[in-house]
Write a structure and sequence with these properties.
Helices cover 79% and strands 0% of the residues. It is rod-shaped, with a radius of gyration of 26 Å. The two termini are 44 Å apart.
C-alpha cells in the first residue's frame, strides 16, 4: 500500500508539537487556578495558575501561527518546483540560444531554462554555462 503524502514538513510538524504542548501547559495552569479557587487554596497558587495558563495559551497561539506560516511556505515551494518542471517540459524543445536568453533573466522560466541548459551540458560532457 502506498504511503500517503506528508501533510507537513518537519519544521511545521515541530511547531505543531510545540503548539500542543503549550496548549496543554495552559490548560494545566488554568486547571490549577480553578482548583485553587474552588478549594479556597492559596491566592498565590491561583495567580500562578492563571499566569501559567495565559503564558501557555499565548505561546500555543504563537507556535500555531508559525506552523501555519511554515506550512504555507512549504506548499508554495512545492508549487514552485512543480511549475519549474512544467516549464522545463515546455522549454525542452527550444534551441540553446533561446534558452540562454531566457536564462539571463529571472523567475521560474529562467530557472527552468538554466536546468535544461545544465542537463544538456552534462549530457554533452561539458561544463554548464554560468
Amino acid at each position: 500500500m502506498a504511503r500517503p503524502a506528508r501533510r507537513f514538513s518537519d519544521a511545521a510538524q515541530q511547531y505543531r508539537q510545540v503548539m500542543w504542548l503549550m496548549v496543554l501547559l495552559g490548560l494545566l495552569g488554568f486547571g490549577l487556578a480553578f482548583l485553587a479557587a474552588r478549594t479556597g487554596g492559596d491566592r498565590a497558587l491561583g495567580g500562578l495558575g492563571i499566569l501559567l495558563g495565559l503564558i501557555g495559551t499565548a505561546a500555543g497561539a504563537w507556535s500555531g501561527l508559525r506552523a501555519r506560516r511554515q506550512a504555507i511556505a512549504d506548499r508554495e515551494l512545492e508549487s514552485r518546483r512543480g511549475m519549474i518542471v512544467l516549464l522545463a517540459a515546455q522549454l525542452g524543445a527550444k534551441d540553446d540560444a533561446a534558452l540562454e536568453r531566457l536564462a539571463a533573466g529571472s523567475g521560474m522560466a529562467a530557472d527552468a531554462a538554466r536546468l535544461i541548459l545544465q542537463g544538456r551540458a552534462e549530457k554533452a560532457g561539458r561544463r554548464p554555462p554560468g
